[in-house]
Structure formats: C-alpha cells, structure tokens
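Colleagues,

Please find the record for the two-part complex below.
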Amino acid sequence: MLLVMADHFRFEKLADDSATHARLGRITTTHGLIETPAFMPVGTQGTVKALTQSMLEDLDAAIILGNTYHLYLRPGHLLINQLGGLHRFMAWPRAILTDSGGFQVFSLTGLRRMNEDGVEFQSHIDGSRHFLSPEKSMEIQAALGADIVMAFDECTPYPATHDEALKSLEITARWARRSKQRMTELHSNPDEAARAGLRIVNPSQALFGINQGSIYLDLRERSLEGLLEIGFDGYAIGGLSVGEEKSAMFAVISTIAPRLPADKPRYLMGVGTPEDLVNAVACGVDMFDCVMPTRNARNGSLFSSRGKINIKNARHRDDARPIDEVCQCAVCGRYSRAYLRHLYMSGEILGAVLCSLHNVSFYLDTMKRIRQSILLGTFNEFRDSFLSNLARGQD
Amino acid sequence: MLLVMADHFRFEKLADDSATHARLGRITTTHGLIETPAFMPVGTQGTVKALTQSMLEDLDAAIILGNTYHLYLRPGHLLINQLGGLHRFMAWPRAILTDSGGFQVFSLTGLRRMNEDGVEFQSHIDGSRHFLSPEKSMEIQAALGADIVMAFDECTPYPATHDEALKSLEITARWARRSKQRMTELHSNPDEAARAGLRIVNPSQALFGINQGSIYLDLRERSLEGLLEIGFDGYAIGGLSVGEEKSAMFAVISTIAPRLPADKPRYLMGVGTPEDLVNAVACGVDMFDCVMPTRNARNGSLFSSRGKINIKNARHRDDARPIDEVCQCAVCGRYSRAYLRHLYMSGEILGAVLCSLHNVSFYLDTMKRIRQSILLGTFNEFRDSFLSNLARGQD
C-alpha cells in the first residue's frame, strides 16, 4: 500500500490509550522524527509568521506546514525547486507538510471556475489567472519537496446540502486517484518531472488522502471507503472547522477518526482550539495544524492554561505577571503582561514576535503533555484537568 | 567632578591609538561593562525594533538606547517607574542610555512653543499637550532609571545662522546646568523624587552634557567651555547628521572630540553610517547610536562588508548566497538572499526580524573589529581596508 516514493516514510504506533482512542506514535521522515500526536505550526508563505526557524527549533517543532497555493503564486514553486526545494529555501532542516492548495483556491480567490479537470482562479495578489488541478498540485508539491503532501481536494463549502456534499466528495475521490497517479509518475520517472520543469528534490514524499462529506456521516464513510480503495500513506479529515457547530464537527471526528487505518497517521486539517486538540486526540487523531496560535497572537489574543487573555485589555496595563504563571516558555520566563501590552499598543514588531512565540509554545507544549500522558496511561485524567483549567479562566 | 548619583559609573581608558585619536576604553555601570568604542542599538519605545532581547544578548550588545520622549508619552514614565524602571519593564539586564527628549520634541511634534523655561508641544500620537523642561526631562529619566542620562538640550535646527546657533547653545548651556541641578536633587533627596511621583530605581545614573553650536567651530568650542564648567560624567556631540554636509560634520567632530576630557566617555549622537563610525572613532569618539541599522533593515537596505545591498532588487530573486559572504551572523549563516527577498516582497514579519538582526550584527561586529584593531595597534590599517571594501561594492 505504501507509495513508491514514500519508501523512507514510516509510522509506528507506540501505545494505545485504554480509556479513549488516543494513541502515541512516531513518524519517520528523511527530515527527522515526528512524535505524535503532533501539532504543525503553519508556515503559509515559507515562514511561520513572526518566528525565526531557530525559535521553532528551540520549541522542538518537528514539522511545519507550507501552503502550496501561496508558494506557487509567490515566489513560485519552480524558483523554490531550482533553489533546492522548500527545506533549503526556508532553511528548515526538519519535516514539512504541504497542503494541496485546494482550500485556499476555494476560500481566498474571487472569480473561479471549476470543472472535472480542475479549478481556474484569479490570484488574490494581482488578479492573474491560474489553473489548479490534481496533476498541477502534485507538480507544485513535488517541486517544493515536502515530506508529506496532500491529495488535491475540493473543500466542500459549508453549509452544503446532502446532494451538494455528495457531488463534492465524488469529485474529490476522482481527484484523489489522479493525485496519486500523478505523484507516482513524477517520482518514478525523471522525464515526467523534467517535462513539468522540475526535479525531484525529496525522493521520499508521502501522500495523504483527504476525507470529505461535510457534516453527513454517511457521506464521510462513503468518502473513506473511496480513499481506502486507492490507498494512501496517511489519511486526513478535511472540510471541518468551516462554520459548522462543534457538535457536528465532533460527530464527524469521532465517527471517522477511529475507522481510519490504525497503522497510518491520521491528520485533522485546520483544527483548532486547545480544547479541540485534546478532544480530537481522544478520537484517535495524530496530527493537527491551525493558524490560530499565530493569527490570534498578532491580534493580541494569548492562550494560557487558564483560558485566553486579551493583551489589549486595560487591566494588563500595570500587570507585572507573565501571560501564564505555569508556562515554561521563553516569553513567560522573561516578559510581563504590561510590557507585552505596551508593545501591542505601540504597534511594535516585537509584540507580534513574542505573542506568536508564546502561543506556538503553548500549542507545542500541550501536545508534549498529551504524549506524556498517553505514555503514562493518564491521558483521560490529563484531558479532564486540562479542560477544567481552561474553563476556569484567568484571574 | 563626578555627580553624586554616579558613584558606580566609571570610565577607564585602556589604550590609545598612536596614529589617530582612537582610544580603547571600558565603561563600568551597575548593569555591566561596556567596551568602547561602542555602538548602542536604538530601542525607541522600549524595544530595539524587531529584535528580541535575547537576540541582542547573543549579539553582545552591552548597552541600548531608550527614547525619553516616546516612553514618556507611551506607556508613561510613571508606569515604568512603578514597574521597577526601564530595565525591568523591558527585561533588559544590561546597560541603557536614555536621551533627553529634546531631539524628538523638536523633530517629531507639530505645534510647539519654546521659552526659557522649556517647550510646550503636542503629542505626535494623539495631539495632547505636554510640557518638557530640563527639570521634567530629569524626572522622566530618573523614573526610567537608565545608566546614562542626557542633559535636556535644544537640538539646533539646520541650517541656522551664527546668531541663531549662538542663542540656541546659550539656552542649551543654561538648561544643562538646570539638568544637573535637578538630577542631583532627585538623587540626593528621596522627598524630591516622591514629590515628582517617582522613586529612584537606579541609584547610579551618570549624566552627560551635550555640545551644540551647529556647524560653527567657534560656537562648538564656546559650548564645550560651558559644559566643562558645569562638569558632567561624559560628553556628547549633538546636533549633527541633521542635513549638513559630511565635511562640515567631520570638521566639528575632528575639532571637538579630541578636546573633550580624555578621562570621560565621548558620545556622538545619532551618527551614522559604517564609514562615519570608523572615521569618528579616529577622532576619538567612544560611543554611537543611530536608527540606521534597524530602519534601513525594515526598508530592505542591508549593510555588508562590500557596501549596501537592496534586498528588494530583482537580481536577488534566485540568489542562494547570504547577504555577506564574510559575515558571521546568524542570518548569513542560515538564510539566502532569495529567501530574504521573498520575505520582504511578501510583507512577512520575519523579513524585518532577520534584516534587522543582520544589520545590527554588522554594526556591533564592526565595533568589535575596531576595538580589536586599536588593541593590536592596527586601527589605521583596519580603517583603510574597511573603507576600501565598503567602496568596492557588492558583486
């Protein structure tokens, strides 16, 4: 079932939680090991916003995400390929996952026309016209050379009727098959890559399929059957956190995650809050990404063990305490809320840097604590106490 | 001659250059040693723009500058005082110098009225009215608690007639005397500080006087006589790099710097380019500050041993080389021009961070090489080769 190009990619399950579906695992890539459950900070344009690569290394980030749509438009996948691929371009020696570009095409661009072949869209930067298809997405992702690449899917809009969601998942299924075929071609035949103007910079790329079906459980299961038939190196749950109720989201996660192959990584795309992470881990999810820690940071919204705080709030004006008194991060070890508020109110770049550093640290630290608790067999207790602390709120 | 409050402040001259007026020295403060000649990165609003304090520590920055005008307006000197002073507020354990606020009042604010007493001005942030005088400037600087504070001066506008410059330096001289008197009062009498709403957070503040006189050498000498009569812990040359010709600027520096007391630090305010630094060191200057490395960085202008490069330039698009192939900084050790250009063109915060880090590193490294060459007795040779390399330009 492993793809021809992913011969160095491996997932090992190290432990199962007895009370939930949570599992401890390890992904091996040619750019290092990823302990799971893992959170992947989002590096949209080849940078996790406001953080240096060395800060991310210090935070023990094992894998980050890059956005195919953004990197294709700027600086261009062929330029990155010519410079040795995304790892070398952004000087990040650890693992990278790239998405398929589908989500951004459907959420960021204005005019677009979709047919069986793919999607024509206009760049959000300069309005120029482009065409993205499963084949094109694979070419871009092969050029970037991430360790994990995603099949090209249509992220079903929300809300969608049962019929719309069905049509959407059917095209996603056909695109998944074409994605695998094209990626296999590119990796098995240097001439194919050369014809696409690129060279294979990472001979060991794993391809993940994406489960769709909106909030309809029958469609989610149908989508899953299609993916299993094709066979992927890992399986993602897509199309969630797009406006649906939390209960609908968790109905999907709790139904689908446990049915994904136990011997492959399971990735919940674009989710979510700290609460979502621990709850989805309990459903058996291994991998997460979300812009929330970095985006919230730039808006002055900070995560803590006792819930979120808004650093803009006047009550932090003279507060000498750190963001979170139990947080071990470099920001909480050095800076006060009063100083961070001053930086934010003054529009200083350092405010964005420090708030991002804290928030990403909070997410990665949460994952570390999740992994430790699964190892120790105390995940359920950890989850209860983590969630009740979050709900208590800050003083 | 030492002020009552500066009993822990000390300057030692360690070596004189035989061919120039350059000197190697060491300033002792209660927040660490400063090897001179030294460059002080500018931390306008309590942050050296785009750099973390730990980056500055890694660059061996021994002292940074804070702006009295900005910190007075936001977050307010009394808030900073209440939180323990500027060192604690910004979590910077090394030395700090604050300026007097005069330069910003005269350059940033709109409506202002000046009389013998001081200057009324409107905040550039919200238009609110404020009054700054020598006494008020000393209160603010005592509240902030920097290791080195500056007498309140009028930065003579350029161009100024001989008569205008004379009037300006005369008021600056009277303000210098009042500055010293008020600072001495605040430090010697806790009730005086309490009446100003503050407490002395740094009992060891050194006060520097500022030489003015525009481009008129006779006025510069007259200003110097006045300062020496009052007596300060160090002497600054102000009012330069405000639009005058380089030759006029160096006429002042080369005339005044060598006549400043040899046993006190000499500080050239707001200057300048890398060329200016080595040339002013040759005139006997010990300390510098300038926004150029950080401001240029945010505009994509990068310093290198072979002159400036503009990272926006299309020729860097696919350039895998570092900014400066002989630079030892963390940015040049890791990132390509192509990546930095991409960050800049994409408006990414990391672009500002990395470009600032490189530029400040270039300035601090230049000072380190200046100090080494004075110690080795090869400063003049260093200066020649440094300047000719800068003039050669980049490939």
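The longest strand of chain A covers residues 10-16.

Comments are welcome before we finalize the supplementary table.
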